[in-house]
Write a structure and sequence with these properties.
By secondary structure, this protein is an all-alpha fold. Helices cover about 75% and strands about 0% of the residues. It has helices spanning about 5-10, 15-25, 30-35, 40-55, 60-70. α2 crosses α5 (about 60-70). The longest helix has 15 residues, at about 40-55. The chain is globular, with a radius of gyration of 12 Å.
Length: about 70
Amino acid sequence: LSRFESTQSYTNLSKREQEIVIEIGNGYSSEQIADKLNLSYYTIESHKKNIFLKLNVKTTAELIKKAMFLGIIR
C-alpha cells in the first residue's frame, strides 16, 4: 500500500462508517451496534458492505487489520 492509497481509503469513510469500524473492532455484532447507535440492523449491514468495498477487504479480520494499519482503531 502506498501512503497516498492508505490515506485516501481512510478519508473515503464517512464519520458514521468510521464509528461502525471502531465498534466492530470492539467486538460488537451488527445487532449490538444497531442498538448502540439507534439504527436498524439493515442500516448497519449496508454501512458494513460499503466499508468492505471502500477498504477493499473481504473478511472482518481483514477489516480490523486494515483499520489498525490506517489508524482508525488501535
